[in-house]
Specification:
Length: about 160
């Protein structure tokens, strides 16, 4: 069993609060999925930004996530604690960066991102095994987000001519 923080500890440390997705990473079952669900309201806010600012926010949250996730993992003495879900937030936001509008695309984006994040096809599996620290924690979810975004783009390309 992995060591864990309590919500009270998260409240005392803003770094851990962010790494644990405002507490969503404390979910006793499927914390990565809980973290992705928690990322949806913030996505809906970010999605109101012009595309350039949305992409800048994705880049900034990725870069800031490296030390945030790395410090929390180090404090817990593990490589990538399952409760660290900031990477899920950013990965989901990347998934949705160019997605068409509508709830069906939100659901599909969520499903594709979780699929790639859990299944970890190559090159995600290689990164997960071989890249450590905060960069490794963030990079595998960035790749899952890019694969999920590509999947959404492919489906959109196939479906668009039908309407």
């Amino acid at each position: 069993m992995q060591p864990n923080f309590t919500f009270k500890q998260l409240l005392r440390n803003p770094n851990h609060m962010l790494a644990f997705g405002f507490g969503s990473g404390l979910a006793p079952f499927a914390p990565g999925t809980a973290g992705t669900v928690a990322a949806i309201p913030l996505f809906l806010l970010l999605n109101m930004l012009p595309a350039e600012l949305y992409l800048a926010a994705c880049a900034l949250t990725f870069v800031v996530g490296i030390p945030i996730c790395g410090a929390s993992a180090k404090a817990l003495g593990v490589k990538d604690h399952s409760g660290i879900v900031w990477d899920e937030f950013v990965g989901f936001w990347v998934t949705m960066a160019f997605a068409p509008s509508g709830w069906i695309w939100l659901v599909l984006g969520f499903a594709f991102f979780r699929l790639f994040d859990i299944a970890k096809p190559w090159p995600i599996s290689w990164v997960d095994r071989n890249v450590g620290g905060g960069f490794g924690i963030m990079l595998d979810d960035l790749l899952a987000g890019l694969l999920a975004a590509a999947s959404l783009a492919f489906i959109s390309y196939i479906i668009a001519p039908l309407f």
